Amino acid sequence: MNFDDFDEWFKQATGHPPFPYQRKLATSGEWPELLEIPTGAGKTAAAVLSWLWRRRFHPDASIRQDTPRRLVYCLPMRVLVEQTRACAVRWLHKLGLLAGEAEFDGDRLKAYRVDWSDSAKIAVVTLMGGEVSDDWRGYPEREVIIVGTQDMLLSRALNRGYAMAPQQWPVDFGLLNMDTLWVMDEVQLMGPGRTTSVQLQLFWDGKPFAHLPRRTLWMSATLGTNTGTGPPQWMRTPEMPTRRSRDPHTLRHSPEDLDRPDFQACWSARKQLEVHLRDFPNSTPWTWESPELIREILNQAADGRLVIVFVNQVRRAYGLYQKIRQSAGPQGASQVLLVHGRMRPRDRRAFEARLQDSV
Q1: Contact 149, 128 (CB under 8 A)
Q2: Contact 145/74 with Cβ under 8 angstroms?
Q3: How far apart are CA 357 and CA 252, in angstroms?
Q4: Which of 99, 151, 231, 276 has the smallest C-beta neighbourhood within 10 Å, fewest atoms?
């Protein structure tokens, strides 16, 4: 493999050439603070693989040295953690840089076991409720990708780590705040966590640890950036005016990106919400048990469209699920799926795997 050609290297990892903005993120001199790119246009690959290229393969030695050794990929919910972890494992595996063994079913990750024996390889570890990896803390000199939820990661960065003994708080506090690149993804879903991440970065800006940098990249398709001057409203903290004299450096798509048909498809994809009101024949209002509701759901799905029904109680969701299966018949019943908050982890994983296989 030619590690001198970013486009070839990126294609080896992902199966397709990079968009111009992805190439710019990996190869330019300055690392941005905000990344605003349309949904489906490869922000995850841009962040993970740009960090790896700059850390390992950038031709400028000063950029390699200035790129933190730990990538902390912070997400608002656990299902996104599992997806991002699987992508990172798959890319490293295809590049021959994965620490450990991974088992795949096609492109879908079935299992991954970390092995720290090869110091030249990079591990992917997880920090979220019910799945907390702690072996990475024993290898502070190693490059690692840490993927987790904001509650687990931000609490540790604040020296108040969830699901940890207080005696261990300082360890993760130090490792997650020094020699670390934070990627805050889907920030529009993070609530107070995104402003907390801004204030955390402000606390570390200007500290005399130039050899152990701490940086943050906030990214989303909808960052809420201002049309005028100044940072987005959610980035404005009480200390920002005294600690920052410039607006955040933002990377967006370019005309060259729009020239790519695959990028243009993401940019021009229809994104609309329609409200449909239907008058049912009964004079009494229909409920989740109504035959009219069952028929409407099946009619909407008759031409192969995906129909998602949200119900506000597990009991009702299960009852509706059973009624739809009965009405759909033996052949249609297999296409009806149920997911709820009380599922066992292994059942939820099986459900998610089935959804991924159907995409």
Answers
A1: yes
A2: no
A3: 31
A4: 276
Instruction: Give the Cα separation of 42 and 87 in Å (integer).
Output: 11
pLDDT digits (tens, 9 = 90+) for 254-284: 899 889 988 888 888 765 555 544 544 554 4
Tell me how far apart the alpha carbons of residues 299 and 304 are, in angstroms, rounded to a whole number: 10
Amino acid at 117: S
Instruction: List, as one string, the DSSP characters of 115-153.
Output: --S-TTSBEEEEEETTEE--GGGG-TTS-EEEEEEHHHH
Q: In a 3-state reduction of DSSP, which class is residue 36?
A: strand
Task: Work out whether strand 180-185 and strand 70-75 pair parallel, antiparallel, or are unpaired.
Answer: parallel
Q: What's the one-letter identity of residue 223?
A: L
Report yes or no: 51 and 181 within 8 Å, Cβ to Cβ. yes
- Predicted TM-score (pTM) of the model is 0.82
Give the containing element (helix H, strand E) for 79.
helix 78-95
67: helix, strand or coil: coil
Collapse the DSSP code of 35 into the 3-class scheme (helix H, G, I; strand E, B; otherwise coil) and give the result: strand
Which residue is listed with tokens 């904001």? Answer: 150
Look at the alpha carbons of 49, 52, 56, 61 in this order and tell me if their dihedral is positive or negative. Answer: positive
